[in-house]
Amino acid sequence: MRRRSRVLAAWLFLAPALAMIALFTVVPFVQGILLSFQSWDGVSLDSPFVGLDNYRYVLDDTQFWGSMKNAVLYGVVGLIVANAVSMVMALAVHRARRGSAFFRTVYYLPGVFSTVVVGVMFSWFLDPNIGIVNQMLKTVGLDGLQHNWLGDPKTAVIAVAAVFVWYHWGFGFILFLAGRQDVPKELYEASSLDGARGWSQFRYVTWPGMSHVTGIVSVLTLLSGLQIFGTVQVLTNGGPAGHTEVPTLHIYQQAFQYSEYGRAAAMSVIFGLCLVALACVQLWVSRRLGGSTDSRTEKGR
Amino acid sequence: MTRFHTAGPTQPTSSSGLSRRGLLGAVGAGLATATLAACGSGDSGGSGGGKEIVFMNQSRGQAATLKKLAQQYTKQTGVKIKIDDVGPADFLTKLQSSSQARNMPDIYSVVDGHSMAPYYKAGWAMNLTDQLKGSWGDTFRPATLKTTTFGADNPQHVKPGTYSAHWETPALGVFVNAAMYKGAGLNPDQAPATMSEFIDQLRKIKKTGKGPFWFATSLSNQLIQSYGSNYMSDEELNATFVGKNSWKSEGWRKTLQLVVDLRDAGVIYNGSIPNGNGDNPTVEKAFFNTQGVAAIFDGTSAVGVARATAPDFTDFRSFPLPKADDGTQTPRLVGGAAKGAAVNPRSKNADKALKFLKWLTAPDQQQAWAEGVPLIPSAQAVSSKTIPQQLTGIAAKISDIQLVQNQILEQVNTALQKGTQALVLKERSVDQVLGDLDAAQKSA
């Protein structure tokens, strides 16, 4: 009886949170899937079911599938470059004897800004005429390197990717730093006695010790890269001539510019499934490369 | 299918008493119901309760003048006006949320026809067609009425009629920096007679080291539509926009050639047109603030932007886009209607809101709009003296606005913007871009 009342109390405490999750996560998720089978202009009270019409449209939409290429590019850049930069910064700050608090704050700072603020800021920095990047190049006598960074297709994709890396490195940095601090000091002492230094210490102590963090950070960064939206919309809006277009921008256009919410929902469902598949692959690879995400705790038992 | 459903009656509980799961379910359902009830008003009418009219305003630049006029109206009639200044970035989102919550304002700003069409179809705007047939309608410029009326062939499938009234007749044209023109030995007060003469002027400006000409990607459709009037009648333009005529015609081929000519002459600033969310502000900043470019293609509302952001820079002129050398028609400006409002017919204050809208668009008030913003008013009777000097070049041709009832579809618009960029970058040919436009029109 006592146990029953405790269980009841526990459920009552959970009820508000569950109701909120149901209202703001589960219901919109299910509605989004339902909407992908309907035709809706965003305002009308009627949204007739259209069967698989929206999915047929998406399958024939070459621009949507073409934009996937850029999403994968940003995902890979996020996965490799952003994570490598974050890890190097985290390891450097961990070793620093002075100013580590300062660098922790500075490196984490970019992630605090809104994507729109970051986009506007970098559109000013990269302006071909008055942007700080070209002005600095001119000041140091490198006029020849001045460039129309966001207007030239060759550099626009790189510029957007660079902004993405800058914006996201703080997130990976703070998790890698926490992961590094979590690796027992004794392991380093033992490896030193065995003659391990520098790279071998990183390879056999640091890397496996941080594998659980690396797995999580990798998946989240990959997903962030694939879902990039705000930075692209503000910096280039998919231009020049569609060279930086990404699926999220295409979905946004379908819904909010063309008032085709059903098609946008169908694209979201397909894109969501692609993300889930890629995340699963990424988790599998992470486990193969760094052992189980829970390897450390498993072995510690 | 209807998107809103009323909750069915709750199932009676078992006579043997409430089980634990039943109790938890009831608590959960109660919470959800209470939350949902708090979110929706359950009333399909307007947000006003009868004493004051709620106006949802989209424009930042016109907010001060609107507030002043609303206060004047309250003094004259005793009807209070509450202005909800949402701003341009959030306007459509908030309007959509209001329509879904069935809590629409009594009167609200309108933007382009494509964005507003769902609201008109859903019955959130009063059909003003009969009202505008009388003396009220006679006060407006014909272009304003024509471009805001949905015809029988509109691709948005809105019931034919006029659903909004406007106090601004914008137009798009060329703005030139007078000092830069003079610096290149050119007369800024003399508009170029033809496009080739204009391109020659831009070449001379380029030689002085200044940026010659720029336009935003988001305005490329207006530039193209404006130039297209050299080769096509308003009926032919309209027929293309509704999908009756193909984009792959000689008229559109010659029109898009303009982008190629500008590119090949090397007179496009930086060799590319800006993109991104703030592409037109970037162009305006380069013209008004940093004065790095001598000529831009922009709307008449740019003068308001200049007054707000670069009040000291007034030495610029405007003129319509120069006519094509081989044009077969008299070129007409793109424009017709900008700022205006629609009345929510489901509001309890619909009649009061309509009276306020009629008052706002009357010539006396349009004088105040023209002086306060500034803008080119939609009322024919307003004195041209109120039009700023920088706009006189475009304003002189305001009677030559295209009478094209339908707009380019958003899907085609996106393809046109992308195509214009691709032409500037030499990635696609004119024929390829026209093929893209036809494909976009068909898939929309």
Automatic annotation (TrEMBL), chain A:
<comment type="similarity">
    <text>Belongs to the binding-protein-dependent transport system permease family.</text>
</comment>
<dbReference type="GO" id="GO:0005886">
    <property type="term" value="C:plasma membrane"/>
</dbReference>
<dbReference type="InterPro" id="IPR035906">
    <property type="entry name" value="MetI-like_sf"/>
</dbReference>
<keyword id="KW-0472">Membrane</keyword>
<dbReference type="GO" id="GO:0055085">
    <property type="term" value="P:transmembrane transport"/>
</dbReference>
<protein>
    <submittedName>
        <fullName>Sugar ABC transporter permease</fullName>
    </submittedName>
</protein>
<keyword id="KW-0813">Transport</keyword>
<keyword id="KW-1003">Cell membrane</keyword>
<feature type="transmembrane region" description="Helical">
    <location>
        <begin position="71"/>
        <end position="93"/>
    </location>
</feature>
<feature type="domain" description="ABC transmembrane type-1">
    <location>
        <begin position="68"/>
        <end position="282"/>
    </location>
</feature>
<keyword id="KW-1133">Transmembrane helix</keyword>
<feature type="transmembrane region" description="Helical">
    <location>
        <begin position="156"/>
        <end position="178"/>
    </location>
</feature>
<dbReference type="Pfam" id="PF00528">
    <property type="entry name" value="BPD_transp_1"/>
</dbReference>
<keyword id="KW-0812">Transmembrane</keyword>
<dbReference type="InterPro" id="IPR000515">
    <property type="entry name" value="MetI-like"/>
</dbReference>
<feature type="transmembrane region" description="Helical">
    <location>
        <begin position="264"/>
        <end position="285"/>
    </location>
</feature>
<feature type="transmembrane region" description="Helical">
    <location>
        <begin position="105"/>
        <end position="126"/>
    </location>
</feature>
<dbReference type="InterPro" id="IPR051393">
    <property type="entry name" value="ABC_transporter_permease"/>
</dbReference>
Automatic annotation (TrEMBL), chain B:
<dbReference type="InterPro" id="IPR006311">
    <property type="entry name" value="TAT_signal"/>
</dbReference>
<dbReference type="InterPro" id="IPR050490">
    <property type="entry name" value="Bact_solute-bd_prot1"/>
</dbReference>
<feature type="region of interest" description="Disordered">
    <location>
        <begin position="1"/>
        <end position="20"/>
    </location>
</feature>
<dbReference type="InterPro" id="IPR006059">
    <property type="entry name" value="SBP"/>
</dbReference>
<protein>
    <submittedName>
        <fullName>Extracellular solute-binding protein</fullName>
    </submittedName>
</protein>
<dbReference type="Pfam" id="PF01547">
    <property type="entry name" value="SBP_bac_1"/>
</dbReference>
